[in-house]
Amino acid sequence: MAGHKYAQVRDHLLRRVRELSVGEQLPAEGVLCTEYDVSRITLRRAVDELIQDGYLVREHGRGTFVTRPRYNLKHRERFVNEVTGFYTQLVRQGQAVTSEVLAQESVRAGTRLAAALDISPAASVIRLERLRRVNGVVHHLAESYVEQDRFPDVLKADFTAASLYAHLRAHHDVLLARNEIVVGLHLCDEREAALLGVAEKSALLLATSRVFEPGQKPVIYGTSKFLPETAELSFDIVADVERPPGSALRTMRS
């Protein structure tokens, strides 16, 4: 099983759990380790995530059982070693994700976007703004930018029920290797409040991200403004044991 084994085990287990009835017991750890050809540590990591998301419950001395998901409103976006994006992550969980495209236009990069995407300030970028819903409920407001010369088809593609990340992989063979994220608070303006159905100046969870290819070339720059009561972000911090001595990890600012 190649790639990030725990994520593959987690996704397969999730599909398997959905076919079981509430209260059914999973096979013992040893059985699952043999079946998936992984260590107990890898298996437990996958099972622990499904427990955190409310699909399973572990009862001491008895085993692990299928339960009803707790998060009927709260949808978690994970930022881990695999860069898949919001759409793919939630679809894998069986959620229905749709987007209302509010803007899909060509704009001049300018200084800020040029620095974020490592391009000329005079270059054109495609601005994609979407109001995203999960199971029909407004979830967050997303704004993404990509270089127009490299990805001109993004200007016309249909993203109402599709992923920008998946589009770049499928149509441009882009490998998304790293997601650099800064999380903070944002007080919404009048327009954002109307779109999200909250009061003006309500506090939103703001995630600003840059997604990179191997070789550290930024591909996507964007922001997501989440309603705190219906979203949470989960970070999996993994030590980079191959990082050369003396090099520094970027510090997350709030």
Secondary-structure map:
Layout: H1 5-18, H2 29-36, H3 40-52, E1 56-59, E2 63-66, E3 75-79, H4 86-92, E4 97-108, H5 110-117, E5 124-134, E6 137-147, H6 164-172, E7 178-187, H7 190-196, E8 203-212, E9 218-226, E10 231-235
Helix pairs in contact: 1-3
How would you classify the helix and strand content by structural class?
alpha+beta
- List the quaternary state of the chains: single chain
Order of helices and strands: HHHEEEHEHEEHEHEEE
By DSSP, the count of extended strands is: 10
What is the helical fraction, as a range of percent?
25-40%
Global mean pLDDT: 82
Structure report:
- By secondary structure, this protein is an alpha+beta fold.
- Helix content is 26%, strand content 32%.
- The protein is built from 7 helices and 10 strands.
- It has a 6-stranded antiparallel sheet. It has a two-stranded antiparallel sheet with strand order 1-2. A two-stranded parallel ribbon has the order 3-10.
- It is globular, with a radius of gyration of 20 Å.
- It starts with a helix and ends in a 19-residue tail after the last strand.
